[in-house]
Design a protein that fits this description.
mainly beta; 21% strand
Length: 311
């Protein structure tokens, strides 16, 4: 139940323009689940265009969602990589996100960079490992992993011809006063450089959410169960607005229905406007990091990431 990625050094970072975009409505998201989990290697550009046309159902694609807050735990300069776990323990989560242009018939947006970041099983974020997650939880350092305290559970992936990205991570934990969630940004116009993503603009800043019944079942398992206290359900969250898939609620499929510890596959289609920009200062809060924690400051330069960091 752990990831194995250990290439965490970052040699160069640069502040990215924090800008914005949009998300497609529920019907498109559900339809996009099947295409998102298709075999990427065997799908051609022509196939991708046909798939996008199939998943577009009239006005659904054009129902766009406003950006929401990036929250207080963002750090610039995440690595371009598929596996972001760095050995953090938790229930495996394979995340597939499909980026489409909602202003152009839901055609794929190849080359879009999707960035995600989220807390570990006990509610701690890399870069902010002294932030109290609320309730009662062991110190982040007690998890026994070899994770880099500045980079775990953060990363980019570049969309393929289908507009699809895939991440291997763990099911996030929770922290007061938030429900279980994953942060994300969709970038365009930049490029991979020195193991991270440089330049361009952010077309969408948002958050992904999990059904209460699934999250609460996961939180009865180790290591999540070592974090006790009051969990915030979706209806009481300060950011989630109750709109289902159009508000970032993931479609989840258990790897083994009878054993949630084996993991989940999660998917969502992101209908963005590639010309849009947003500051990332959308609605909702997200908690406040401790006063001595870094704010948008990457760790010191080190050795270049290995080739596996770009997978």
């Amino acid at each position: 139940m752990t990831g194995n990625h250990k290439d965490t050094s970052i040699t160069r970072r640069r502040a990215l323009a924090v800008t914005g975009g949009t998300v497609a409505a529920g019907g498109l998201v559900v339809a996009g689940y099947q295409s998102a989990f298709a075999d990427d290697a065997t799908t051609t550009t022509a196939d991708a265009t046909a798939t996008a046309s199939t998943t577009s159902t009239g006005s659904e694609c054009m129902t766009l969602m406003s950006s929401v807050t990036e929250g207080p735990y963002y750090l610039d300069g995440a690595l371009v990589r598929k596996d972001i776990t760095e050995g953090k323990s938790g229930v495996p989560l394979t995340l597939r996100l499909t980026v489409v242009d909602a202003t152009d018939g839901c055609t794929p947006v190849p080359g879009a960079a999707v960035e995600i970041w989220h807390c570990d099983a006990w509610g701690y974020y890399s870069g902010y490992t002294t932030a109290n997650p609320g309730g009662s939880a062991p110190a982040e350092s007690e998890d026994g992993s070899t994770a880099d305290g500045n980079t775990y559970l953060r990363g980019y992936q570049i969309a393929n011809a289908n507009g699809v990205v895939k991440f291997e991570t763990i099911f996030p934990g929770w922290y007061t006063p938030r429900t279980c969630h994953i942060h994300l940004k969709v970038h365009t116009g930049g490029e991979k450089e020195d193991g991270t993503y440089e330049g361009g603009k952010v077309n969408y800043t948002g958050q992904l959410f999990f059904a209460d019944e699934i999250a609460e079942e996961i939180f009865t398992l180790e290591p999540y169960s070592k974090h006790s206290g009051t969990y915030t359900e979706l209806a009481d969250d300060m950011v989630y607005d109750g709109g289902g898939a159009s508000s970032g609620l993931l479609t989840l499929k258990a790897v083994h229905k009878s054993d949630p510890s084996k993991g989940y596959k999660g998917s969502l289609t992101l209908g963005v406007d590639p010309d849009a920009e947003n500051t990332g200062a959308g609605s909702g809060g997200g908690g406040t990091p401790p006063g001595d924690a870094p704010t948008g400051t990457p760790p010191s330069d080190g050795a270049s990431p290995s080739a596996s960091a770009s997978s």
